[in-house]
User: Fold this.
Amino acid sequence: MQTANVVPRGMDDEGKLLLRAALAIILLFHGVSKLAGGIGPIVGMVQGAGLPAVFAYGVYIGEVVAPLLILVGLFTRASALVVVVNMIVAILLAHSAQFFTLNETGGWALELQGMFIAAALAVALLGAGRYSLGGTAGRFN
Assistant:
């Protein structure tokens, strides 16, 4: 008698959806804030770093477009890498003085940025999963 090795289906795809949704929704709050309030302060930081002011508009790609694509699961891996680059630029432009500091409750001063980077790297490595518009077969999902 032959027995089949039946492996129960895990919850990987549900976990990927939860990770994508959490990253995208929390990051979208920052993007929507910049849409509503403008990016004047970011333009100043970009110019202060010696870069053209037009680079400041990249924040809309990193904090609005990429999170929306991550949320729906299209070009998920590439969008997650855009978020990583966006967060590294944000740290370099606005938070470099806080890199080795703690906040008032004893946590790392850049824990939010660190979690954005870690979550985006995880999404880039894991992909979107089956609960996505791009599906599991998409090249960039």
Observations:
- The CA atoms of residues 49 and 93 lie 7 Å apart.
